[in-house]
Amino acid sequence: MKVLAINGSLRKDSFSSRLAAAAAGLAPEGVEVTQYTGLDTIPGFNQDLEDGAVPAAVEDLREQLEASDAVLIVTPEYNASAPGALKNAIDWSSRPHGESALAGLPAAIISASPMPFGALWAGQQIRKAFTITGTPTVEREVAIGKIDEKLGDDGTLTDEGARDEVTALLAELEELVGQVNQEEAEVAA
Question: What domain count does the chain have?
Answer without folding.
Answer: 1
